[in-house]
Amino acid sequence: MKVFVTGGTGLIGSAVVAELLAHGHTVTALARSDKSALAAQKAGAEPLRGGLSDLDVLRTGAGRADGVVHLAFGHDFSSPEAIARSVEEESAALGALGEALTGSDRPLVTVSGTPYVPGRASTEADPIPTDGPVGGRARSVMDVLALAEHGVRSTSIRLPRTVHNRGNGGFAGLLAQMARQSGVCRYPGDGSQRWPAVHALDAAVLFRLALESAPAGTAWHAVADEGDTVRAIATVIGRRLGLPVEEVPPATFGPLGTIFAADQPSTSTRTQDELGWKPAHPSLLEDLENIQP
User: Fold this and answer.
1) Which of 77, 103, 167, 247 is most buried, taking the most CB atoms under 10 A from its CB?
2) Predicted confidence band at 176 (pLDDT cuts at 50, 70, 90)?
3) pLDDT (tens digit, 9 = 90+) per residue, 88-115?
4) For residues 64 and 58, what is the distance between their CA atoms, to the nearest angstrom?
5) pLDDT value at position 46?
6) Which residues contact 2 (CB under 8 A, 6 or more apart)?
7) Own/partner long-range contacts of 37-41 (Cβ < 8 Å, ≥24 apart)
8) What is the mean pLDDT of the chain?
9) CA–CA distance, 258 with 132 (Å, rounded to integer)
10) Which of 194, 160, 198, 170 is nearest to 281 (CA)?
11) Would you give the DSSP letter of residue 101?
């Protein structure tokens, strides 16, 4: 299968590209810079120069492909306005990709987050919330899944709060990054809230499975660890970095504070049963032992 991938040189995207190539697919990767283009080439993909805002480039990439995996997102969480700009950019990009695939029965795999459900772990049957700082992403994903009625085999992979590889990535990676900058590993609230996680290499397998065989209009959970407490995550980070660990108010984390403070465990039972996906790589707490001071 000829696959067009956006975000193909990031932590998740590079794992997805490698997984696709290892299973006989060819990959064209959207590259917004010379550095990204070189990384795509070294990985074995053909770069297509452009960014998420280059809608004609996206249509061209999708039009030439047998399927599309969308992973790119502007990860500027510095303010509500910056988040809104990233959400709007992604929404327009998904619209262009969907337009190029309409009526073709080709797959479009996009990404969202696992939902928050008060009092229990979320499942694949739970709707993703359309409110909050990144609620606009959920609305875009719902639009993509609705393309199943218009000749697109659209599916969504719901990623947990931390997708990690060698201690980097996701919310846990942000905690480590902030700890290096401040000299203290801070965590929101009392730290009893749980964050689900998955290794990037396991997530990549699920993206491939969805691309190859998932039915149109379906959503799947890339969850390996149903939920480690944030206090446990911060404790490992602090120990590995040689820094003190401290509880702080959620507002310390700005626009992400309410999300960081939420208890949001999640499961992937249906995904594992129906798609045959079996996570095999280290858990988050094991992988955080790779963090370097």
Assistant:
1) 167
2) very high
3) 999 999 999 999 999 999 999 999 999 9
4) 10
5) 98
6) 25, 26, 28, 64, 65, 66, 67
7) 39/9, 39/14, 40/8, 40/9
8) 95
9) 9
10) 198
11) H
Give, in order, the Cα–Cα distances in Å from 177 to each of 13, 79, 117, 134, 170: 20, 18, 28, 21, 11
Return the residue matching tokens 């500027």. 76
Q: Which amino acid is at 72?
A: A
Tens digit of each residue's pLDDT (9 = 90 or more) over 202-222: 999 999 999 999 999 999 999
The domain made up of 2-162+198-225 has a fold known as Rossmann fold (3.40.50)
Residue type, 9: T
Domain extents in the chain: 2-162+198-225, 166-196+226-290
Handedness of CA 230, 134, 176, 287 (dihedral sign): positive
Q: How far is CA 255 from CA 78, 81, 132, 250, in A?
A: 7, 10, 9, 10
- Closest-CA residue to 117 (of 108, 109, 107, 127): 127
Cβ atoms of 212 and 27 closer than 8 Å: no
Provide the CATH topology of domain 166-196+226-290.
Answer: UDP-galactose 4-epimerase; domain 1 (3.90.25)
Kind of pairing, strands 26-31 and 2-6? parallel
Q: Where are the alpha helices (DSSP H) in the chain?
A: 11-22, 34-43, 55-63, 80-101, 135-146, 170-182, 200-213, 230-241, 257-261, 269-275, 284-287
Q: CA-based Rg of the chain, rounded to a whole angstrom? A: 18
CA distance 178 to 41: 32
Q: What tens digit of pLDDT does each residue of 73-83 get? A: 876 767 878 87
More confident residue, 80 or 9: 9
- Which tokens hold the place of 153? 């085999």
Q: What is the mean pLDDT of residues 150-174?
A: 97
